[in-house]
User: What shape does this take?
Amino acid sequence: MRLALGISYNGHGYLGWQSQPNGQTIQDKLEAALQEFATIPVHTLCAGRTDTGVHGLMQVVHLDTDIDREPFSWVRGTNRFLPPDIAVQWAQPVPDTFHARASAVARRYTYILLESAVRPSLEHGKVGWVFRPLDLQAMQSASQHLLGEHDFSSFRASGCQALSPVKTLYRIDISRRGPYWRFDFEGSAFLHHMIRNIMGCLVYIGQGLHPASWMAEVLAARNRDAAAPTFSPDGLYFAGPVYAPEWELPTDTPAFQWLP
Assistant: This one.
């Protein structure tokens, strides 16, 4: 039987999603909890890896098992063995043809940014931070240059393992509530550090260090050196994959409600 799980996590204290020998990753903690619950080793495949310090609002994984238990048992049983900053939100049987990564038709990320003269304290690790005022219209104009299919080499980390730098960005929405800025991204897939490198450029433009047209120049350069420095991971959230309706998987992200 193939089972899909929806996972949320605070990534601040972890070295990203992907399993590592030291065991301090989200995948390591999840698989250890699943093994405690199932009493046998369990391997998971995720919809999209996240880096050190990046959070997950609705990571989706799948696993194969011969254990026949009700979905709510997988949720409650696994959560019993997880640390408090990682939680299974739902579990659902899926056809054997479902693949958490390959079946996704799009992926969504959100970045939360605090604009304040003083660095964050209560929100430490949960929001990015800028102390200079940002210009909404400039950032919105700049983001339009990125929509559609492009070679995003200028926003690609040197260690990126993607086979191609060509990706499609479907939307970038930018909004503000009080001192908090929210940036929503949806695309076919994302390169390593792509969102954080785009954020670095948007912040430069928002602060008036470059005009909105500079984003088009960075994109056309296809060279990482043309872009701004990689922005902080603190405010970055993997909002989850998008699947075709026929998989009948949950689409809501309950953990999203607290965000501005």
